[in-house]
Amino acid sequence: MPTANTYIYPSDGWTLIATTPAFIRVTAFPHTHPYYIAAASSTPASTVIGTLICHKPFWMNVATGENIYARTANPVPNSSTRDGKLRLDIITVAGSGAGGGGGGGGASGTGTLSQVASSATAVTILAANTNRKGASIYNASTQVLYLGLSGTTPTSSVYTVAMAAGSYYEAPAGYNGIIKGIWASANGQADVTEFT
């Protein structure tokens, strides 16, 4: 899964952020700053509005031959870095022709999205799946999410990773076992993508 980050400013207009991906995930920093996304085979006209994104990561399966473009209408306020430019962190998955194949490795052409409601008792975030090639989890909660990558139930003191509110995590390459989670208290959800 190639990753990149880019900085955009209103005067940049539509900026190409990914060329013909099968799947894309974009997270903006700061999360509260609005931006727009468009999928097109060539640079959209300046009159194209696009899809407004704010407060949450954006992800989508992309139609064959489409590129992904982003723009922002306003500079980031009170920004002392990058002259008010908005940072976009981008994760893409190449199409099925990019190599690999078979379960447990190689490129993925399919991302399956799901949401798991937060809970103060342990829940399954992802069931074990021998066909999994990767997984990402976004903690869309104001509470810490404790993940366990094992059959053992995670707690606030025994866990694999503690995800702060609004943070993002990718499971280690090759891990296709169960992923469990428990929040400090029930609030929000986990936004999950499993690549097969």
Distance between the ends: 12 Å
The CATH class designation of the largest domain is Mainly Beta
Order of helices and strands: EEEEEEEEEEEEEEEE
CATH architecture call of the largest domain? Sandwich
What about the largest sheet? Answer: 4 strands, antiparallel
What's the short story on this structure?
By secondary structure, the chain is mostly beta strands.
What does this structure look like?
The chain folds into 2 domains: 3-93, Jelly Rolls; 98-195, Jelly Rolls (Sandwich). Helices cover 0% and strands 42% of the residues. It has strands spanning 3-8, 15-18, 23-29, 35-40, 51-53, 58-61, 67-71, 86-93, 111-117, 123-126, 134-140, 145-148, 161-163, 168-170, 179-183, 189-195. The chain has a 4-stranded antiparallel β-sheet, with no helix packed on it. A 4-stranded antiparallel β-sheet has the order 2-7-4-5, with no helix packed on it. Strands 9-16-11-14 form a 4-stranded antiparallel β-sheet, with no helix packed on it. It is mainly beta. Mean pLDDT is 83; it is low at 96-105.
